[in-house]
Amino acid sequence: MLVSSAAGGSLLGVAKKANIHMVGVGYSIRGILNGLDFVKRNAIPHKSVISISSGHRPYYQSVDEKFDDLVNNEGFIIFVSGGNDDKNGCQGKKSNYFHGNSAYRKAIAVGATTSKIINNKYYRASYSNFGDCIDIFAPGTGIAAKMDKNKSKYSEGSGTSYATPLVAGVAA
């Protein structure tokens, strides 16, 4: 619930009228693939945005194929977090540092910016991954996110996992 409230939270979200469906996937590739299959079966193609605030290593052909199917055949838009390792997250699938999901290139990868304006500009956050597969940067530092179902508890967080739902919310 924490990062999804940045996309569609009723108080602070960028898309307050968006319908958000959280799909628990765990940390396994099988869980991620099952979650994406659930979305494919239950969401409305060409009218749904998928936001994934996680990453994994190494490269998995099955994830690449699933993203390709959802984007090119089903009409979904997928946003993924770019990673928080201050590295080029766009190295090839055979590299020692392949950052999925951003390096798959089927999804729109989101990096994070700082919360401070310097010389009239925002800059990449020091932790945010970078490289030619990072398609867009968004605020990712000091993001207020809802902690509970009532509107009284918020937490401040940082990372590309917070920047990603902001961009997905704007797209929604």
Could you outline the blueprint of secondary structure elements for this entry?
Elements: H1 4-8, H2 29-42, E1 49-52, H3 61-73, E2 77-81, E3 108-113, E4 134-139, E5 143-146, E6 154-157, H4 160-171
Parallel strand pairs: 1-2, 2-3, 3-4
Antiparallel strand pairs: 5-6
Helix pairs in contact: 2-3
* CATH overall fold name: Rossmann fold
Mean pLDDT, as a whole number?
81
Let me know the CATH homologous superfamily.
Peptidase S8/S53 domain
* Percent in strands: 15-25%
Q: Which strand order spans the largest sheet, edge to edge or round the barrel?
A: 1-2-3-4
Estimate nothing, just give the exact number of structural domains: 1
**Unreliable runs, pLDDT <50, ≥5 residues?**
none
Q: What structural category arises from helix and sheet content?
A: alpha/beta
CATH class membership: Alpha Beta
Shape: globular
Number of strands: 6
N-end to C-end Cα span:
17 Å
Outline the biggest β-sheet.
4 strands, parallel
| Number of helical regions | 4
Oligomer: single chain
What is the helical fraction, as a range of percent? 25-40%
Reported CATH architecture = 3-Layer(aba) Sandwich
Secondary-structure element series: HHEHEEEEEH
Indicate the radius of gyration in whole angstroms. 16 Å
Domain Peptidase S8/S53: 7-172
GO molecular function, one term: serine-type endopeptidase activity
Organism: Anaeromyces robustus
Keywords: Hydrolase, Protease, Serine protease
